[in-house]
Write a structure and sequence with these properties.
13% of the residues lie in helices and 27% in strands. The protein contains two helices and ten strands. The strands form two sheets. The chain has a five-stranded antiparallel sheet, with helices on one face. It has a five-stranded antiparallel sheet with strand order 2-6-5-4-3, with no helix packed on it. The longest helix has 14 residues. It is elongated and about 90 Å long. The C terminus is likely disordered.
Length: 198
């Protein structure tokens, strides 16, 4: 027989539910944070598109090297002379990566809290500077198609940038992870299977 005050399913009271919701809100990472006033980008070139309307993200075909070739070269040689020096960071450079698949662009991040996009072939100019972190930028990684990239900084912020426009698509401040770098290592390990550009 059932008691008159018997409870068949137990759960948190309203007060306990409010406490749990408050705790869960504190644990969630701050997604889509307020736009930072320091987030800006500087375009250093005038010819952002060629005569066919293609942006600088599209690999050019007028170089000696076939950038679209997926086969490795038959012979490889050790470099014997310095061809070019890219010099624009005021402090040390933390990381340099090439554009996915074609490698015609190069992205660098430095201790001066800036990220720079460079041409690898042709005039080897600095195309764009991305500024939005308060402290030194430690790590960067491109999405699979190169249209966006992630940056992690010592200011405990991870930002998703649009490579072409320099717009910050999203800012993320992870709290569940001990450091920003453990979070970005997890992101980098999964970036091959999950496209950041979605």
């Amino acid at each position: 027989a059932e008691y008159t005050d018997q409870v068949k399913s137990s759960g948190p009271t309203e007060e306990q539910r409010a406490t749990l919701d408050e705790w869960a809100a504190r644990k969630e990472p701050k997604a889509n944070a307020k736009p930072d006033e320091n987030e800006k980008t500087i375009l250093h070139i005038e010819d952002t598109h060629d005569y066919q309307g293609r942006s600088f993200l599209v690999a050019p075909k007028d170089h000696e090297v076939n950038l679209y070739n997926t086969e490795p070269p038959e012979k490889c040689f050790l470099p014997k002379k310095l061809l070019h020096t890219w010099d624009a960071h005021n402090k040390g450079v933390a990381k340099v990566i090439l554009f996915p698949k074609t490698g015609h662009l190069m992205l660098s991040c430095g201790m001066d809290s800036k990220i720079k996009l460079w041409e690898v072939y042709g005039k080897r100019r600095c195309i764009r500077t991305y500024a939005g972190h308060a402290k030194a930028v430690r790590d960067i990684v491109f999405s699979n198609d190169g249209s966006k990239f992630l940056s992690a900084s010592y200011d405990r912020m991870i930002k998703l940038w649009d490579t072409e426009t320099g717009h910050v698509c999203r800012g993320l401040q992870p709290r569940r992870y001990r450091t920003v770098y453990s979070f970005i290592r997890m992101m980098i390990s999964s970036i091959a299977s999950y496209r950041v550009c979605r």
